[in-house]
Amino acid sequence: MDQAQRIALGSIVVGVLVLALKTAAFLLTGSVALYSDAAESVVNVAAAVAAFLAVRLASTPPDRNHPYGHHKAEYVSAVIEGALIIVAAIAILNEAWGAILRPREVSLTPLGVGANVAASAINGVWCWLLFRQGRALRSPALVADGRHLLSDVVSSAGVLIALGAVAATGIAWLDPAIACLVALNVLWSGMGLVRSSVGGLMDEAAPAETLERIKRTIARNADGAIEAHDVRTRHAGRLTFVDFHLVVSGDMRVSAAHDICDRIEKALQGEDSDMIVTIHVEPDDKAKHAGIVVL
């Protein structure tokens, strides 16, 4: 089990612990706002399980049916997480609306509020870890899990503010009203997560700064070639796929052109070991002559 899988498995354990604490907080207080927090934690556990399965599948080596690997499984997991977040938001809105129509008494016991604070603190620390490790490991599933928990931390902060307002003013409808705001925040988070993850499934290109760095590396390491053109990139999990055409003299030996390709590929992978490079060599009399000038 690699580091990404261990972190994803840890998310399941943390999710179950936080769910238990937030459920206890809701049962002790009867607060709809705390119910909304607990409902989102149910989704957190389901999303953590999906992330673990996706990271595990993504780590399996290429096979006959998937020669490019299984890295896109992480994007599928992120889309599922986004959809689950949206479902949670709808469930929270439904419960909050019912509480607005039929107000209920809220008992803000120190034990109940304390359980929610403890759960939020655990989520905050784990969220920071997921962002840090997810970006370091270039794992869309872990980053998506971190974004999900961040929305939960923000929601929890809103819930605690709402409970403070209810305690200070005695206005009961503030509890479900804040729950509605929490649901809208959760809904926005889920839609954003789905949108960003679909980009990965649609073979979205590498960022502009990454593409420029790739082009500079090609230009510095293609001595003996004439130019390169049609540079294309796409992401698949932690991998970045790069392909381009390399123009050489028509009378250059195949072995010499191959040496140039090896040198460029080594230089690109020296900057990013998770880069998969494919180079198409073409003679100058067949080339477009509209690309990267070799330095």
TrEMBL record:
Q: Record's family?
A: Belongs to the cation diffusion facilitator (CDF) transporter (TC 2.A.4) family.
- What Pfam families does its record include? Cation_efflux (PF01545), ZT_dimer (PF16916)
Q: How does it sit in the membrane?
A: Multi-pass membrane protein
Q: Which UniProt keywords apply?
A: Membrane, Transmembrane, Transmembrane helix, Transport
NCBIfam families recorded: CDF
Q: Which residues cross the membrane?
A: 7-28, 34-55, 75-93, 113-131, 152-170
Q: Where in the cell is it found?
A: Membrane
Protein's recorded name: Cation transporter
Residue stretches making up the Cation efflux protein transmembrane domain? 11-202
Matches recorded under InterPro entries: Cation_efflux (IPR002524), Cation_efflux_CTD (IPR027470), Cation_efflux_CTD_sf (IPR036837), Cation_efflux_TM (IPR058533), Cation_efflux_TMD_sf (IPR027469), CDF_Transporter (IPR050291)
Which segments constitute the Cation efflux protein cytoplasmic domain?
207-283
Output the superkingdom of the source species.
Answer: Bacteria
